[in-house]
Amino acid sequence: MGKMIELENLSKSFGELEVLKSISVSLEEGNVLSIIGPSGSGKSTMLRIITQLEKADDGTLTIDGSTLFESIDGKARYVDLVEQRNILLKTGLVFQQFNLFPHFSVLRNITEAQMAVLKRPREEAEEIAMSLLKKMDLADRARSYPFQLSGGQKQRVSIARALALNPKVLFFDEPTSALDPELTREILKVIRELAEEKMTMVVVTHEMNFAKATSDYAIFMDGGVIVEEGEPNELFGNPKMERTKKFIRSFSE
Amino acid sequence: MSGLLVQMLEGTVTSLKVFFLTLLFSLPLGFVVAKGKMTRVTIIRWITDLYIQIMRGTPLILQLIFVYFAPFYVFGVSYDRFTACIIAFVLNYSAYFAEIYRSGLQAIDQGQYEAAKVLGFTKAYTFFHIVLPQVIKNIFPSLGNEVINLVKDTALAQTIGVAELFRVAQTSASRQFSTFPIFVAGIFYFIMNYIVSRAFAIGEKKMNYYR
Ligand SMILES: Nc1ncnc2c1ncn2[C@@H]1O[C@H](COP(=O)(O)OP(=O)(O)OP(=O)(O)O)[C@@H](O)[C@H]1O
Ligand SMILES: [Mg+2]
């Protein structure tokens, strides 16, 4: 089992605002990493840089042995566009707001990228989509449109959409924050099952119990730095830093 | 009587030509203008904005006259009235369509672009398969209104002497001291717009399968 993610000294600013201040994270293949932290601490920005929705200012990132950018003279130098795209296809991202394509059926939401990006034949793409939908307990909704689904169902479709492209590592940015407690549970169950299958995942979440039970490693971020990190039992059960204690306490009330 | 009908038919054909040629050029051109207004390049944005302001802020009738006569007064060259008429209509309608496209594009959730990017779709694929279908659905009603306006606006082509339907009707009405030709022209505009609004209603219904 090798390293899936090696992120070193990642920095990012938006104008004057320093959002990430030399963040380093590493993740083994088959492991689950949880990231917690207050609003504005830079969690999403970090995920968005790894999934190439934002550009890093400085730092080095290697995903599954391929380097996306490297710190040279205090600046992140990206590899060429072809290689960027190859690395992009190793990652998947599940959004808080699902971001399903409203004009496509559930099935087509899952087949479209398989066909257009991976050039899979329609039959194969549909077969893969159907088996993922079965796994998500949604086989009977294949012909529905996103507006006909509950939030929890939408999120399961968006997870299936990401999985269909066989990413090496899957990122979740607060996948349950837009959902009721009931629906939250159904999504957390799906992620837990993926963890059991040894899917490599990074989950930004406010669900402390879930993070504690499911992840192999946990990080607490605040103000653009990693304040504390470690085994989930340690971080959640016995935090060392005052800020971590306060944050975790505020969520277990 | 049959002479009148033939003349009115010819006028109708001219009106339809103005209508379809304007759509043919201004529908795509409006898109270019919309993109110009949304670009980060300040000078291009500034110029497109001025262009849109002028087109929407002055009467089409004035624009027709300007497009037809300006080259004559400035360069001493004159050209075909019909061509001038199409140019003026296209310039005018591109500006209106641009504003409609722009509002449609801006209504697309940023999350759609982000999901498409993360899934590996190219920019072109994202635009044509993810964004454009949703934009078309969003703007369809306003587009329909504008096309109905265009049907009626074709009557303005007579300003620079293009023998479209309304001009033919007016001429023969005054020759025959009868409002009958005007009435016939009215029926044409009505039927034409009935077809246009039905077509848009059908299109809207077709796109109603999602929200
Ligand atoms: N595109 C942007 N332009 C300017 N500022 C941004 C941009 N994206 C994020 N920020 C700012 O960067 C900071 C970190 O944002 P980020 O979304 O990474 O935080 P977060 O930890 O995910 O917070 P939350 O829990 O609210 O999702 C915030 O102050 C935010 O306002
Ligand atoms: Mg966030």
Please render the helix and strand layout as text.
The complex is a heterodimer of chains A (253) and B (211).
Chain A: E1 3-14, E2 17-28, E3 32-36, H1 43-50, E4 58-63, E5 66-72, E6 75-78, H2 81-88, E7 91-94, H3 106-116, H4 122-135, H5 151-163, E8 169-173, H6 181-196, E9 200-204, H7 208-214, E10 217-222, E11 225-230, H8 232-237, H9 242-252
Parallel strand pairs in A: 3-9, 3-10, 7-8, 8-9
Antiparallel strand pairs in A: 1-2, 1-4, 4-5, 5-6, 10-11
Chain B: H1 2-38, H2 42-57, H3 60-75, H4 81-106, H5 110-119, H6 123-153, H7 165-176, H8 180-206
Helix pairs in contact in B: 1-2, 1-4, 1-7, 2-4, 3-4, 4-6, 5-6, 6-8, 7-8
The complex binds adenosine-5'-triphosphate and magnesium ion.
Magnesium ion binds at residues 43-44, 173-174 of chain A.
Provide a short characterization of the protein structure.
The complex is a heterodimer of chains A (253) and B (211). Chain A is an alpha/beta fold.
